[in-house]
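Blinded run. Sample ID left blank on purpose so nobody reads anything into the name before looking at the predicted structure. Input follows.
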Amino acid sequence: MQKYLSQSDVQARLKAEVKQAGNAANWAFENDFSKAFVSYVLNGQRKPSKRILEILGFKEVTVYERAKADVQLGE
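Blinded prediction complete.
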């Protein structure tokens, strides 16, 4: 079974990458983003863009689950 990650998991990975680059400004420059946008993603004010996800080795997927256990498929 595949483990799905939360936005905070992605933020943690980005924080590790930023730390390795020295700071958010360096990481943003190296990856052609504005420092402000990277900061917004790090602080949870914006969702990570598709390109940030790709750089970090992730992709966004949509997942659905049943709200009630008694719901039958096809209804």
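Unblinding after everyone has recorded impressions. The radius of gyration is 16 Å.
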